[in-house]
Sequence to fold (201 residues):
Amino acid sequence: MTTATTEVTVGVLALQGDVREHLAALEAAGATARPVRRPEELAEVDGLVIPGGESTTISKLATAFGLMEPLRERVRAGMPAYGSCAGMIMLADKILDPRAGQETIGGIDMIVRRNAFGRQNESFEASVEMAGVEGGPVEGVFIRAPWVESTGADVEELAVFDGHPVAVRQGRLLATAFHPELTGDHRVHRLFTEMVRAASR
Fold:
């Protein structure tokens, strides 16, 4: 088997949010995708997607399911992870305006603002130029989306919209404020799948 076709298994944190859409996008991008709800399932994947949803709910459920510390340990140990929308918040080291008791997995040296682009009824779509994604802009679906307030020196800003970073990467960690899984365009998932393959070689 050549390294270009290295098979990788990518989990989707299946506690809340648009899990099925991410599973389908990952399969279309060439990964084996499976839902992750328990620590033993987390241990079996090469990388992990943290989907959009409600970041406070995901935080509480991850703690309740005994997943928060295993998630932090895997990320610290170098497991590739990709977070979209609420998943971006979960991968942030700091939240500007956290709810009481809200925790993150962390790993990306950034501060994010929850619901930065407005409430549910202010959701919108916009074309976003994203470094590392070939073939023109991606269609960004912004639903109660966060934005990045500030980043550390090791964080690469991949896309900026309305003056704020909306896609970032730090090492093996990737995050977008928007939802590529809802568009039928699998290029962001293909980028992440390649990150997982590179880490698995």
